[in-house]
Structure formats: C-alpha cells, structure tokens
Queue: 3 jobs
Job 1
Amino acid sequence: MLRIFVADDELLVIEGIRILIDTVNVECEIIGTANNGTEAWSRLCGGDMEIDLLLTDIRMPGMSGLELLENCKELYPEMMTAVISGYREFVYAQQAIGLGVIGYIDKPITRQKLETVLTLTQEKQHRRDLTKQDKLQLLGQCDEMIHYLTEGECENALECYHAVKEQLQREFFTLESYKSQMYMIVSYAAGAYYDYANEIASENGGSNHYPSYRNLHMLQSKEEVDDYADCIVNDIIRKLRMKQRGVVHGTIREILKYMEENYHKDISLYQIAEEAGMNAAYLSALFKGETGISYVRYLTELRVGKAKEFLAAGYLVSEVSDMVGYHNYRYFCDVFKKSTGITPNEYKGTVRKREEQT
C-alpha cells in the first residue's frame, strides 16, 4: 500500500486526487494533505512520517514545491517525489528532475496521468524492497545463460533464458522498464553467441536478429516485447545449432547465400538441386540436417520476414506479394497469416498504430 502526502494550494485539486486514487489500479492511500508549501513543511519537518510518495504542486504561496522537495531530501532519503504544475515551462521540469522526481503531472490531472506516476512509484518501491537474494538469483541466471551460450549448450541456455524472463515478468511492472531489462538480456545473449560463433549475423543466411532498442521502443505491450525477445533468442539458438552441426558444407553455405539474394524469384529445391548437380532428395535431407528445418520452411520464413519489412515501409500488400516471390496474392496472404497469425493488412495496421503512438 503506497502512502501518499499531497501538497497543493487548490482544494479542488486535492479532492480530485482523492477521487481519482479510488479508481486507479494501484493500492494506495492519502495519509496527509497541505494547502501550501509552508504548511506541508511544518508537518514534514519532524522527519517522523512514513511516506512513500510526496505529490506537490510547484507554485504555492509561502514555500514553493521545489523548495519543499529540497528541504525533504535529507529528512526523507527514501521518499519518492512527483510534482504537479499548471505551467508547462521547461525550467520547472528541469529543476524538478534535478531534485530526483519520478514524475511530472501537468494540470488538469487525469486518471491516466496519476496512475502512470503511482505505477512508477510502486515499481520503484518494489524494486527497492527486493531482497539481496532475489537480485543475486537474477544475476546468477543471466550469468548461467551467458555461460551456456559461450559453451554452446543450447538446451541449458534456453532453460536459463525462460527462467530469467519469468523473473523479469514478476519484478518489473511498467512496460518501459520491462523493455530496458529485456534489451539488456537479449544483448547479453547476442553478445555471448557472437563471441562463441565468431561470425557476423548474416553469415549463415536468415534474418539479422541483433537487438535494436529502436525496434523494441515501438512495442506496445509486454507480450510484444516477449515475442521480440523470443525471436532473437530462438534465432541465436538456431544459428548455434547450425554451427554445432558444422554448417561448413560449401553447397549449403552457397544455397543460403543464394536464397538471401534471390528469395523474390521462383527458386524451388529441384531447381537448386539441378544447378548444384545433386539429387533433390539428398539435398533436402542435407539442408534439413545442416539448418535444422526444411528448405520450404526456411524459404517461407525468409520471405515472410522480408514481407514484414516491406509492409512496415509502406508498400501495398499486392506489391509486397510480388516483391517476395509470391505471384498469387491470395496464396501470399494465406502463407503470411499461417506464419504470423494475422493477415498482411492487419500487420500493416499494427505498424501504423505503433508509429502513431510514438
């Protein structure tokens, strides 16, 4: 339960916050209020109140909110602070940030604005209250995952990754902090893999799944963050398995490179086998043995991945269909939906929505 002290010279603002607090998805209570900075300081100066969050207006008669924050820093070192203002001048926000506030709410105060600050407060409190054992456990799991990746132990690495992800889901409430932590984890994983493999991401063909915080920042839910991270880690594991199987067969390496450069053409396994002077059945078995998946599935995943890039860039679905080697529009839509769970147009819609929200 968050304990909140509110200081504002507008009684309506204080009462409005009381009402809004009953509607937010955070357990909290107001344990004290003041109508100006001087009154607030007179109640807080003893240093004996148990407060999790001081929510104060910036401009108040007698003592400003910024002065109040400054005075409280030493008395309440663990108390979190947020400021309210009807003024949008950057200088106030800058000064408040310098005093370590976790949120800046401009009037009129809405449920969403208030809940954002309260959620951040709750998360920071939760993280601060984590036991040393919990922190060491998370660090230990990360170290284990990196160790297994550098040793090429795929199954153990995957097991550690899922354990780390489960703990992150328990410990981090806000989407932004979850993104930051997940970015750190997948960056560690990618770095460990490339140290082990000693190769560039595209050497063996397929998608370049190296973590990009710009891409991660566009995601709108923890589920999307999980999907993004899973995609990277699974791609790393796939490449690692390919490396362990000894994907040094010259023919397969050349085929992967050829597929990357010619996915938009009609490139059947039989055609490639003929050009390579090999039996199609033998090449099919060799390809799956080296890459872990069939030729058809590899080509489909490659084309769908490229299609996503083109759709995100704004091309029409009919144009993308041809650009990735599917000359039958309906067939392309069926393949895309089977692979991703949504239609190409639905995918374009999700990309457009993300761009509008960023």
Note: The mean pLDDT is 79.
Job 2
Amino acid sequence: MVGKGILKQGLATVNHGFAWVDNWFTQSQHKDIPPPLFIVGVPRSGTTLTYQIITQQFQVGYFTTMMGYCYGMPNIIHYLTRPWIAKQRLLGFNSSYGKIRGLLSPSENANYWLQWFPADGKLGHYLQPNTIDISNYQSLQTSVASITQIMQMPMVFKCLYLDMTVGTLAQIFPESKFLVLHRQPIMVCQSLFIGRMKQARPENWWSVKIPYYQQLLSQPIWQQIVEQVFHTERLILNDLNQYANGRYLILDYEDICQQPYAMLEKISQWLKPLGYQTYTNNCIPEKFSISNQITLSHDLMSKMQTHLAELKSQEFAL
C-alpha cells in the first residue's frame, strides 16, 4: 500500500509539472461545439457496456486508458490519440469491473475529474449542486471545450464518481445530456457484493461513496451495499430532475442486452439534433448475455431485498 501511495503521488507530481506545457495546446475557439454526453448509473448497472456500445457505434471522442496516466495533459493526449479515436475500431465488449483492456480503449479516468470534484469527505463523492459557484469550474469548462475542439466531434464521458456530481455537471455544462442506466436493484446488490468480496480488503468501502457512508462502515457489508445502491440511484434521479429536467434518458440494462439496436436507434434520435452521428458499419452484436442468475444464498438475497423494500417505504413516507 505504501508503494502504491508513492507511485500515485509521483504520478500526480508529473502531471502537475507538465500541465503548464499542456496549456500551450488549449484551443480557445469554442463556438458551435456539441455538448458532452455523460453516462451515469449505479455501479454494476451496465454503464461500461453502454460506454463501449456508444463509443463503437457513434462518431464520438472519449477518454482513453492512456489519459489515466497523463490526466494533467488532456490536450496533448487527445492530439496524439485523435487519429485512432476518429476512426471506427472494433475493440470488443469485454471488461472487468469497469476496466477495459488496452491503452487506447475507453476509460473512466477518475483522476481527471477529481481535479475538480471531491475524492472523499463527509459527503463522500457527493457534491451538493445547490452550493456550488460555477465560476470555480471555468477551467473544467475550458478543458472539455478544448478537448472537444481538438477531437472535432462530441465527447462522451463515463466515470462512476460522476454519479455524485450530476447536478453540478448539469449546471457547468447547461447543454449537456445524460444517459442513465437502470438495472434491477437486487441484481446490482448481488453483483456489487460479489465484486467487493473479491477485493483484498472487502471490509473497506468499494466504489462510489454516498453521503455519510462512514456511518455505515460498522454495518454488515450486505447492508452497506444496499444503502449504496439505493441512495446512489436516488441522488442521480433527484438531481437530474431538478437540474437537468428534459436532458436525460433512462435506459434499462436488460433492454440494452436484449435489443441493443432498438436502444441505439432511440439514443440516435435523441442525440441527432445535437450533431451526434453514427458510423455506417454495424459492429454491435444482436444480443448480449444478461447476468441475472442468482448465485448468492437465499438468506443473503432475502436480507438485501427486505432492506431495499424498507428504504423505499421510508422514502415514500417522507
């Protein structure tokens, strides 16, 4: 863990040191650029698969894995990778817990976003959208606009930590659009539980940190996960309803898997007025396999299902 911390600090120092060089490549002409598209949703709800489908079928730019190491140099990296990204590539649809293999594959690049958004705190990753000052995010607006100008195509972003900042993003980018993935909460809980138990220290919180998550750390892992799933989805929808009403589209995980072309047509029609275009060659399978088989014990699944119902009933009672 010490070695990992030193490596992370070293990476941050290098990126900070080269940021001034990257500023030389910033594009200042931002007229008529298409707004960004953000893919959000509870962890394990199909956001990575949707990211892969969108980036392979639409003529869009995206963050590559390479950017994860060079997050302080977004302009330079996109100048270098544009020849690759600007052409349709058959990258496949394999991934492992949000990570897609390959330096030029679509990636989340949390380090880029964490330059502006909280890495942790009392509210976890959540940023209250009614407390922000937009002027504090002018550098983010400039950065995304510059990258879009360099790529000469719309940008699509997917990072699970952005689940907790959708209200803020909607204000920073007032023309932006959001694709929201939904999956049966109980199946999300199962998938998150399995993934967390594979971690070296499963007792540690994993993935998106909801507000006051620290108070849940004394609870059983299954209960922490149920709270995480329920409150993440609730915050996403509440903040989008308030700050991006009419600018988001909800997609069901099972529909994406069973009828991807119907979903692509729906997305295409929704984004077409903004200048989003698709490639003429179809590279998407007719169907994707759905991971909806129950593998955890009946007792554990019953506990999670009961707690989900309790949280939902409490929400309606408010």
Note: The radius of gyration is 19 Å.
Job 3
Amino acid sequence: MSIKMIFSELKEKYPLLVDTANYLEQNSFFFRTTLTKIKGSGLDYELAEKLCSDCLNHVKQNRDGYFKCVHTLIDFSLEFLKLQMHLEKTGRYTYSTFKEIEENIYSNPNRKLKGPWYTWALYFSQIFWVSHWNVFRFFLSEFAKNNKEHGEVLEVPTGTGIYIAQFLANNPSWQGTGVDLGNTAIEFTKNVLAWNKIPSHRIALYKEDIYKFETDKRFDRIMCGEFLEHVEDPLGVLIKLHKLLKPDGKLFLTVAVYAEMIDHIYLYKSADEVRGHVKEAGFIPEKELVQAIFENKSPEDRDTPINYCAILKKI
C-alpha cells in the first residue's frame, strides 16, 4: 500500500506532512512499511505539520532546500541498517573512543552526513521513526506536562533542541538551561527555540563538556536523550546528572542499546545493563518505555537493538 493512500485524507489539512511522507516512501524502501506504522502509532499530525513547516520556513520556502533536509533522514536510516549489520557480525561498534570519532568522523571533509545535515536527520526522525516518535510522545505526555508552576529544567545535550523547546512551551514560567559540546547543536537549538517563540531570557545555552560543566543551580527536571552511548564513561554522566538534580527532581533518560550509529562508542547489550548503571548512579525508574527496534525481538532480549526510555527519580 502506498503512503499516498494511507495519508490521502490528511492532504488538505496537513499538506506538508503528507508531501514529506510521500517523498520518504518514494525515495527509500525503508519507509514503505515504517510510515504505515507511524500512522498507526498515534502521530500528532498538528505537531508533525508544524515541525515540517518550521523547516520549510527556515529554508525560506525553498522546497528543493526543504527536501534536501528531509533526505538526510533517508541517508541516516540506510547508514543505521548498514552499521547494524556490522555490529551483528562483529559484536562491537566501529569506534570505541571519542578521539577515534573526532579523527574519523567529525574531522572527515568527505563525510556528507555531519554537522547540520546530521542534525536535520535527527530532527525528522522524531516524527518519522516509530521508536523516536513513541519516545517523543511519552516525553510530551508524561514529563513535559502537569508540572508545578515554576521550576528549572536542564537538557544535556540539547541536540536538535526539540525537547527543551517543547518543555518550555508547555511550562511557560520555567527557566531552561542547555548544554552541548557542538556548535551545530547550539545553533540548531537556538533556531528551534525561536520557531517555538521561546524568548532568549528564558534559557541559557552553554557550549561545554558536561563533565566540566559547573553551576550553582540544581534542577527540578533534566532531559538526557540518547547520549550515554556517545561517551566512554556513561556512568560518570549519570553521576554528574544526579548531582545536578534536586532531591525531588526527575530525569528523563533515553539510551540506544545495541544499535550502531557511526558515533556510538559505548555498547550497552541489554536494557538491564542500562538499569545497572541507573541504579549505581543513585536513580530508580518511575516509569519506563522499552522498545525493540525490530518486530521479531523482545525489548528484554540481549544483543538486539533497543530504545530504552525512562523517567528516573533519586533513590
């Protein structure tokens, strides 16, 4: 079944979303089944249309430029499938240190999927990858809403900026802090905050290594999305976040388990390995969403790609 048939009734109300879905399906086999699942997963069409429209407005209504941004998600998805085959053959990620990533990926002039192009892929994955949309929906319903009137929120790393922008939009009297080591992520986050009409006085952004980041603030809420697999010492990150969180605060954590992307270096082999680090750092899960990426696998299996997501509190 084509995506045009699946989404045809949405064309009048959500035209850019439908055009984007059609483009993905027409240009990659990966999305011919994925998009069917996306529609059945309770996608927020209003939010999805807005995310697409924000990108189109950013490129000044240039549709060729827009679909160039969208196409990064196809490159990103195909690279994941290729790298996952490598992982399943060798039992290890391609790189295991940040130095290797810096030398072979971030400093590679011939790599197309880096900098803002990599960030655009992550941006569109929030609505066009089933597992990422499920996590985003879980975040919006269980973490970003029904909070006290005033508070302090931290995101490490900011990545695309979508999460902290949505949190601040849903909590208009809260103040935000974002930390990321990459210039691209900081600039991308600034754009996303502006698209969501979050004034600059409500958030402070720092280009900083989280291990070195120091502040007198303690936070009511912290978000840390798919970061632990990018560092050599994920337990150290969790311990640092525990220190930054207020005694009654909560941490929203997501982790890619046994899922290879080119800049993943710490290999978690099961959800229980993540839970072990969570407990050792002084946290306990309040709620979890654990998804197997492939349908024929269980989220509690070892050596299968999993998206681990949890709302944590201090023990």
Note: Residues 41 and 130 are 7 Å apart (CA to CA).
